[in-house]
Amino acid sequence: MSEFDWESILPATPLGEIEKDIQTLRQGFRSGKTLDLNFRLDQIRKLFYALYDNVDAIKEAIHKDLGRPVFETELCEISFQWGEFNNVVSNLKKWAADETVKGTTIQYTLTRPKIRKRPLGTVLIISPWNYPFVLTISPLLAALAAGNTVALKFSEMCPHTSLLLGKLCTEALDKEIFKAFQGGVPVVSEILKYKFDKIMYTGNHRVGKIILDAANKYLTPVILELGGKSPVFVTKNCQNVSLAAKRALWGKLVNAGQTCVAPDYIIVEPEVEQEFIKACQYWVEKFYRGGVDSDHKDFTHIATPGHWRRLTSMLAQTEGNIITGGNSDEKSRFLAPTVVAKVPDGDSLMNDEIFGPILPILTARSVDEGIRYVHENHDTPLAMYVFTDNASEGEYIQSQINSGGLIFNDSLVHVGCVQAPFGGVGQSGYGSYHGEDSFLAFSHRQTFMKQPHFIERPMAIRYAPYTSRKQKAVQGSLAAPSFPRTGKVDRSLLERIFGKLWFWVIVLGLGAASLKSGIFL
């Protein structure tokens, strides 16, 4: 497939229709229909069964676009997404319930402040090509669950999948709450001219900055999932180096490395370097039965010729030692699983996120040297993987590097925990989703309270004229600090109990009851 073949498969949305479609979504939100939780649940159910009933067609479309094995699609996309549907449907009413504000001062006792999770309005989701099912449906599900109307720009780089998903979603969902947009840069550029209440983009840094610039015009909040170079630490305290290589390689090679949280490079200590290299050679051969070529059914191809050329150019310029793989085929966009050892710091493989089936192993260094390398070159990765059986060492590495997510002794699988937040930090993006965080990501937490009429007299102190009597009353009501000027700041359990008003109310109540009953007489 050439870079432009998608146009013959995926008709672009006419630019003249975009404004009208966005206006329809705004009117749909203003109708108030999405405030009804039962309406949201019904829409989610319709979406689920539209996808569920066509799952074989979805898997086939992904295979046409990426050449990905059906098993990988089932493992990494389908099973995850079905679980997320179940989680949202089971918990939506609990997530959406008003939340009582706890720990308020006495002056707010009668106003009973609460938090309501309100939908933001009309949101824009721009989905990527590398996991075109789950990274499209997961944020769509979140936005619908939170009560928004959704403009969804599908990726033109996976045209068969985008065409099918756009059709299924449009048929399943209310026409006033969902619109599918297809096409390339002109379509995205036109969409970004209009105001949205939130934008979510999954992709690369370059486009992420363009999204931010467009959103800034309207002060629109943005969720960015940008990826980056996610490091793997293999320390001398790793007791099963072969297993570490097996799990790190799986994380790198699934979807041919075209995964935002794929292990990007290995930092291995000298004591286990050679064992790790040999284990990598062994497991690549074991995974792919002695070799991989362009016809291998268990290995995904590179998405576009442009991406293939970028990867093969990086590999051609590396100063490291290719210990396995390296073979490629431009016509089929195939690049074999490739491990490169003894990679120097400034190597062609170490400048940007690889996003392909190439795994560099940096020249052996200590844990502290590895930490310094991450700080100085690729700080705040989207994920980090630490293979060690020394708990204190693991805690130390975790404390030194701020990554979006972290797994000890495995790779990738944290993304599948649909109940836990997933997202980047710093250069790897910001904002998180999955589970309740998905719901909150597309909601506004609105504080509200109800002030009773009968407390007007004590509240009258706030009105002018500001007399000296009022000033003294305010000064007398100021809360004293609950912590000392010096010494230990955090109070002990007993100090916290004795400092509670309810404790003394109970003591006085028991004392009064005792006197009345004559216990102490």
Automatic annotation (TrEMBL):
The active site is at E225, C260. It holds the Pfam family Aldedh. The chain crosses the membrane at residues 501-520. The keyword Oxidoreductase applies. Keywords: Membrane, NAD, Oxidoreductase, Transmembrane, Transmembrane helix. Residues 17-447 form the Aldehyde dehydrogenase domain. PROSITE patterns: ALDEHYDE_DEHYDR_CYS, ALDEHYDE_DEHYDR_GLU. InterPro entries: Ald_DH/histidinol_DH, Ald_DH_C, Ald_DH_CS_CYS, Ald_DH_CS_GLU, Ald_DH_N, Aldehyde_DH_dom, Aldehyde_DH_NAD(P). One of its GO terms (biological process) is aldehyde metabolic process. One of its GO terms (molecular function) is aldehyde dehydrogenase (NAD+) activity. GO terms for cellular component: cytoplasm. The keyword NAD applies. Belongs to the aldehyde dehydrogenase family. PANTHER family: ALDEHYDE DEHYDROGENASE (PTHR43570), ALDEHYDE DEHYDROGENASE TYPE III, ISOFORM Q (PTHR43570:SF16). This is Aldehyde dehydrogenase. The lineage of its organism: Eukaryota, Fungi, Dikarya, Ascomycota, Saccharomycotina.
